[in-house]
């Protein structure tokens, strides 16, 4: 939008602007200004400098033009320059308050004006700021609608079409995807047909189209328009808009898994924008940060999110990093912080934050709050109906169903997510959905299918070189894979053997469900399958039949038993089954000596002291009952400081853990593996059973942790790696 440059001294510059010859235009206007300083020549110089990214020249020329138009009494022309200055202060310097001031000045200058191009320009440009600064699509739609009305009255075709483009983007963000896309398609068809003549309006309309596609992840449509826009930008030398275009194109590459191309585009865009429009580099930086996070380069990702700290997506990036680092509470707080900035009507932007919030809350064990967030996400997906958003909502539903113990519902949701991400061509998201599906299938006892899904996730992440998430997928696959020849004669699955082991321990279905994080219905089905496969009709008979057949209910994969050292102590395992069968059928296999006196103790009465040297330094212990060093029942409390870790170890007897405060992450295996896919974080009230001789590890997050530990003594720690044992003073890890 520029005023009339028909004055004789502006003719050469105006002709150069019409040809897109920005350097020639600058030279012509500077020459004209040597002879006479006119506001028209200054306005032309400001536009040429805008295209050339010469910010100091641009600001100086436009501020001088504003003063001269005011001195002349041309309120409309001064308002036009004020609108330009508002946008310049926002885009070049990130000075939002100054931008608001210039917009209000323009509105004041035009308050008595009738329909004119300057009023249309003001309404449309303020509408776009409502989208990109305030994230308010409803107000943006109202302003754009008024701009369109005024543009039609005064015959400004370019402003009318640009207004329709902003209107379409606002409709799309509020959830009216089909109608919004129709408006955006219409405007860009007009561009190709030559109906628009203002280069700025043309380029902005095309950028709004691509931004809209990015919001709803309609990347097929975006690719078609991006190809046109890149050709147009290259032809006319529209460098600043081409840099923004590259950022949006990189988002498509990131989604589709062409990460090398995404990295090249984002690096180039960030460099160009940093040199010309530093206030606009945030979008490129946060997308590059997300790429680094997906690549597993978490330190670099953190630095990039910090550089773009004012960008709202940087908050979501930090939330994703918190989840990667097993701090779901921090992730949930950050996701909630992001959502508080967005009005309810901004549905497309809220969907991204809601999906992350559901994931964080389920990981933190806050199912009720997760259900509330999921309800809003599901309503947005149902309204917008784009395959990627429907898949995202399905995946979030799967996480919550799994957290609530409904593995079969989780399976269905994750299957829907897999189908949606396959259709959308999103390999990274597809890998995450396959891992969720694998976890649900494993909980249902369908180990071969679970392993197949986990293997597909490993393949996808390997192709992407997503090393951090690849390690998690491999950990999940390792926990699911069953080597040839390990199946027992009854054909029991790994989950069925886990259930049988707990049946042998005397647990009922409800207790087993709580122990294995399953629903009562799922446990009932597993028990029924065990009865059917062993041809028995009672729990005692199932345990006895397993003992007679030599079936090890604790058998696991990888050559080491999950519950005991079966390869070294297979006879002991069988004997424990026989003993359990005797107890279940009414016999007596032994007695447990009870504490001789009752114990009642308030938290203030607990006597804390340093934990024994078998634990890494920093822990504290309070003995509540019994003597952990003797062969008798005991109960103790333990306090761990923030970021405390106990490397991989086992115990000679079963160990029971209840978390009182903080969050404790536990994992199975021979090595401390923070962030592994099979790890589980327990918040207050969480319970964990570590059967005798099972290798496991534990670590705290950013907050201290207090737990209750109880079982049958004597307590001992056998570290997998002797160098991890604090008692080996020469190599102790403190």
Structure explained in plain terms:
This protein is an alpha+beta fold and 734 residues long. Among the domains are: 73 residues, Alpha Horseshoe (Serine Threonine Protein Phosphatase 5, Tetratricopeptide repeat); 168 residues, Tetratricopeptide repeat domain (Serine Threonine Protein Phosphatase 5, Tetratricopeptide repeat), CATH 1.25.40; 90 residues, Arc Repressor Mutant, subunit A, CATH 1.10.10.10; 122 residues, Jelly Rolls. Strands 1-2-3-10-5-8 form a six-stranded antiparallel sheet, with no helix packed on it. Strands 7-6-9-4-11 form a five-stranded antiparallel sheet, with no helix packed on it. Helix 1 runs antiparallel to helix 2 and helix 29 runs antiparallel to helix 30. The protein is elongated and about 105 Å long.
List the helices and strands and how they pair.
Layout: H1 11-19, H2 22-35, H3 39-51, H4 55-72, H5 75-93, H6 96-109, H7 117-132, H8 137-154, H9 157-173, H10 177-192, H11 199-216, H12 219-236, H13 239-256, H14 259-276, H15 282-295, H16 298-307, H17 312-324, H18 328-340, H19 347-363, H20 367-384, H21 387-403, H22 407-424, H23 427-443, H24 447-464, H25 467-480, H26 494-504, H27 509-516, H28 520-534, H29 539-549, H30 566-584, E1 609-610, E2 620-626, E3 633-640, E4 645-650, E5 655-661, E6 664-668, E7 680-682, E8 687-690, E9 696-700, E10 705-712, E11 718-719
Antiparallel strand pairs: 1-2, 2-3, 3-10, 4-9, 4-11, 5-8, 5-10, 6-7, 6-9
Helix pairs in contact: 1-2, 2-3, 3-4, 4-5, 5-6, 5-7, 7-8, 7-9, 8-9, 9-10, 9-11, 10-11, 11-12, 11-13, 12-13, 13-14, 13-15, 14-15, 15-16, 15-17, 16-17, 17-18, 18-19, 19-20, 19-21, 20-21, 21-22, 21-23, 22-23, 23-24, 24-25, 26-28, 26-29, 27-28, 28-29, 29-30
